[in-house]
Amino acid sequence: MKSKTQGYIFVLLAITIFSIQDGISKHLGSAYPPVFVTMIRYWAFGLFTVVLASKMRGGILATARTKRPVLQVIRGLLLASQVVVVISCFAVIGLAHSQAIFSVTPILIALLSMPLLGERVGWRRWTAIGTGLAGVLLILKPDGGFFDVKLLLAIFSCLLFAFYVIVTRLVSRDDSSMTSFFYTGVVGAVAMTLVGPFYWTWMSPGDWGWMALVCMTSISSHYFLIRAYDMLDAAAVQPLTYLQLVYASIIGVTIYGETLNLNTIVGSVIVVASGIFTIWREHVVGRRQVTRR
After folding, report:
1. Is 123 contained in some domain?
2. pLDDT tens digits, residue range 1-33?
């Protein structure tokens, strides 16, 4: 029981820090190229994964040993690309509205797991998926007469992360979570180092301080999330990640002066409820399959 309590504390710490990171990323992404911001962030994150791997049993060589090298590289590239798109979303769409759209990701994962992973989805999850997608359409509904094409950037981000999760599930059949985490940081850092210098921009001294804080939050949030997954099932962790939507709304409205219309609020409630049910149902089905074996 004590272990579970600590696990929930670690989840809440991770989510809170992720939200602070998002708020700072919006500021930096609005002033500097998102690719540049992502590169600096990945330098810190990549260094963290290398240091963590060196402390594991067998060191870096043992941690880096993988049976799915191509998929591990694809994972790293997908997540690095998604981070760039996310920061761009915060800058051009807004923190709260972006997170509202991002909340559909678990539903997209369930949808893609059928053709890509061969998973079967029953009528309950189909209902949740359909309801969640309806909620997203409500969020995307324009206030005026024209659809804002910038919102497609957030949908693209959701798809990138959904594919990242799908590939992560594939490699988890052969590689440990620490190996996957190592490749996430290292591949992303290498990829962004190859691209980022073309977007190099000299930052003000004050913004270098914000960048340093982003790097620290990136390291600490991932550390706490790793600790949480060591103590809790994914089904217990994932629903709590929707708190990021609440945090994003608070930060977006109070600090950046963003506004939330009724469509966004109602649509977000529908998507979150559908997503939590989808996650719970996947957990139930997974436990049944394990029991039958």
Report:
1. yes
2. 567 788 888 888 988 999 999 999 999 999 999
Which residue reads 């540049």 in tokens? 36
Average pLDDT, the chain: 86
What DSSP element (H or E) covers 121? none
Domain range holding 113? 95-145+261-293
- Residue found under tokens 């972006």: 98
User: 181 in a domain, yes or no?
Assistant: no
| Cβ-based burial of 97 (10 A; exposed 0-12, middle 13-18, buried ≥19) | buried
Q: Is residue 22 part of a domain?
A: no
Residue 59 falls inside a structural domain: no
Q: Specify the number of domains making up the chain.
A: 1
Taking only the tens place, the pLDDT of each residue in 197-243 is 999 999 998 999 999 999 999 888 888 887 787 777 666 677 777 88
The more confident residue out of 185 and 114 is 185
From residue 156, how far is each of 35, 135, 176, 207, 287 by CA, in Å?
16, 17, 28, 28, 32
